[in-house]
User: What shape does this take?
Amino acid sequence: MNFFRRKYYRLLTNYHKSTGNEVGFAKASYKLKNNKELDLHNPKEFVEKLQWLKFNLYDESYGNFVDKYEVRKYVEEKVGKEYLIDLVDVYDNPKTKDLRDMPEKFVLKGTHGSGYNIIVKDKSKLDWDKTTEELQGFLDKNYYHKYFERVYKDVQPRIVAEHYLDQLDSDNIIDYKFFCIHGKVECIWVKTFVDGKYRNCYYDLNWKKISPDTNTSNYLSKEVKRPDNLEEMIEVAEKLSEEFVFIRVDLYSVKNKIYFGELTFFPWGGYKRLTVEHLNHKLGEKIKLPEDSMTS
Assistant: This one.
């Protein structure tokens, strides 16, 4: 896409966002990011079907699955509380929280979106007033307005405090993100920190790397050791995903113990095509949409 067309679609995206035109925003954003038209009448590819699900199925009623506090109840019911990081507290007004009640290390997360995180490794060095102000900034935002993901629209803004796991903040920690379709893991997106940058790649269920059609700057070229508890992680992911057409289940493995991360309905907001091109088609074919009617 040349400079002028890119500028046009960027302006169009901003216009649709400012007017609250969800479908217009989706089509313009998809074109801007992928230089392809988004087909919602007859979706075939992976991201096209995610966008269809966004407008036709996954609405505000699914909010508890993305709420970082409420989802804990679902995880406990489906697979057990042993997969949850220990909870410190949950609250909706940062000014009411006394730092003296917190452990020496902890993590603060906004329950209502992505990226609302503060990691505290030593509370004695923390500027609590500044942190409280930052947390209030999180609470004042509605993540729905970023990508028009309706699942976030009515999530109650709160702060959840969890115990800090040193291993989860290590440069060597690996994110295992399980792409699940109709309750079955189809592939695993692996993300880790290498040479000062996050790199990623895909593996199949036999832990064979799914190579991209063309190399990308973020491609994780080195081999990642097959986790010893891969079968258990797959089992956990499939139990957590069995109620959904598509969901991504994010897990960690620390000293052979599995921890739940989050559930994601729309990776990258549902706009970014997968870097392994043939997966856009393969995963799209596996998604069976629940209705015949299509959004215009």
